[in-house]
Specification:
The chain is α/β, with parallel strands linked by helices and 209 residues long. It has one domain: 3-Layer(aba) Sandwich (Rossmann fold), CATH 3.40.50. Helix content is 41%, strand content 24%.
Length: 209
């Protein structure tokens, strides 16, 4: 499944928007809708400058070796991976390895990560949060949290987006630079807090013996 999220641009005003490839990894209907909300936000905020082309892959499909091969081309070209799972869900080892492999590839190494959470959910206790924090530290990425409101209700944030990204080539670097600018000053996780966050998340997501 693939679609475009971009605003119509008057002819002749500016050059064509750059393509930004997004892969959504979700668990069920609820987490898929959460991922779509975060993608809608990107389209609303940056749609004048970027065409967001996205594909969606369910968690169980990506863990099947035969079906996983169908997702390989999308993953290899992804500029952004959105990982949307339930807070209590442990990120499967195969999925962690898949994301790590994407970040480590040498042909097109630039790829950002994002995980959306409901605003009321304890994101730091989620294994997805811990996974992104670990990958951010391993690959030298910045690690940010961002509160996002629905277009209909700007008063109360409805989503919390957790980002991990490094240095990008132009024009994608412009998008990430603008993301940093619109985030609140207290929304970033400082490097010395990162290991504490990971330890706390692992402790709270550890399964009972």
């Amino acid at each position: 499944m693939q679609s475009l999220l971009s605003r119509a641009m008057p002819s002749g005003e500016r050059s064509s928007p750059a393509t930004f490839n997004v892969v959504l990894i979700y668990e069920d209907f609820e987490t898929r809708e959460r991922a779509r909300k975060s993608l809608d936000y990107l389209g609303q905020e940056f749609g004048n400058d970027f065409e967001f082309r996205h594909t969606m892959w369910r968690l169980d499909v990506l863990q099947d070796p035969k079906l996983n091969a169908l997702a390989a081309p999308s993953l290899a070209e992804a500029d952004l991976l959105i990982v949307s799972l339930r807070c209590e869900r442990q990120v499967p080892d195969k999925i962690v390895a898949l994301i790590d492999e994407r970040l480590a590839q040498s042909v097109n190494p630039e790829c950002a990560l994002m995980a959306p959470f409901e605003r009321s959910a304890p994101a730091t206790r989620s294994s997805v949060y811990a996974c992104l924090a670990t990958l951010a530290r391993r690959h030298g990425f910045d690690f940010f949290e961002q509160a996002v409101s629905d277009a209909e209700d700007q008063a109360e944030p409805s989503l919390k987006l957790v980002w991990a990204f490094g240095l990008f080539r132009p024009p994608y670097a412009d998008l990430l630079k603008r993301l940093r600018q619109i985030m609140k000053p207290n929304s970033s996780t400082r490097p010395n807090e990162l290991s504490e966050t990971i330890q706390l998340s692992r402790k709270n997501t550890r399964q009972p013996a």
